[in-house]
Description:
Layout: H1 3-27, E1 37-46, E2 55-65, E3 72-74, E4 81-84, E5 89-93, E6 96-100, E7 106-107, E8 113-114, E9 120-121, E10 138-140, E11 145-148, E12 151-155, E13 159-161, E14 167-169, E15 174-177, E16 181-183, E17 188-191, E18 193-195, H2 201-237
Antiparallel strand pairs: 1-2, 3-18, 4-17, 5-6, 5-9, 6-15, 7-8, 10-11, 11-12, 13-16, 14-15
Amino acid sequence: MDNANYVTLTRQSGLLREMQAVANNIANIATTGFRKEGLVFSEFVQSTGADTASLSMALGDVRATFQTQGSLSRTGATFDLAIEGEGFFVVSTPEGDQLTRAGSFTPDAEGLLATPDGYHLQGSGGAPIFIPPDAGSVKIAADGTLSVGDVPIAKIGIFRPDNPLEIERKQGVRFAVQGPISPVENSVILQGFLEDSNVNPVAEIARMIEVQRAYELGQAFLDKEDERIRSVLQTLGK
C-alpha cells in the first residue's frame, strides 16, 4: 500500500469515530443532562526512513465534551434539580465519586437521595443526603440548602474539576475526574426543574451529513487508487 492510501485510511478512521460520536449525540437528544461530544483531529507525523521525507497523517482519537448549558424544563417534582451555571452534582458509584448534570433524584429505601441507577447524591461535605420518612414539605434553596419544613438538614454541593481536561465520560451522563474537584460558588440550584441535553438537533444532523460526505469522498479516492494499482500491475504483468 502506498503513502496516499495510508494517509487516507488514517483520515477515514477518524471520520468513522466522529460519525459514531455524532450518532451518539443524536440518540441522546432527549437524555436529561447529556453533554454533546465531539472529536479532536490532529496531525501525526510518521518517519519513513533516514533518506526519505516524513509522512503527515490525520489522527482523530481524542474525544471532547462540550459543557454548554442545556435548556431547563419545569417538572414540578420535589427532587428534580437543575444547575443554572457551571458545575456538577457529585454521586457515589462503585467506581468512585462521579459528576453529573442529570438532576433526577428520589429517596431510596434507606431514605437517601439517589439517581435512577441507585447512586447516592452527595452533600457539600461529601456525605449522602438523608430525607426523613415523615418529611412533609421539602424545599431546596438556590444555594443547595435542603430544608424540611423550615429546618435546614443538608446542603447539596455543586463541584467542578480543577482541570477540565481531566474529565472522562462514563456510562450514561456521568463523568469521572482523575484530579481534584472544587466547590462552585456562583451557580444556583433550581428545584422542580431538569436540564435538557445540550445537543442542537439541526446542527448535529448537518454535521452528520458533512462527515458522511467527507467519508464518501475518501472512500472514492481509495477505490480509484485501488483501480490504478490494479491497472499498473496488469500492465506490468503482460
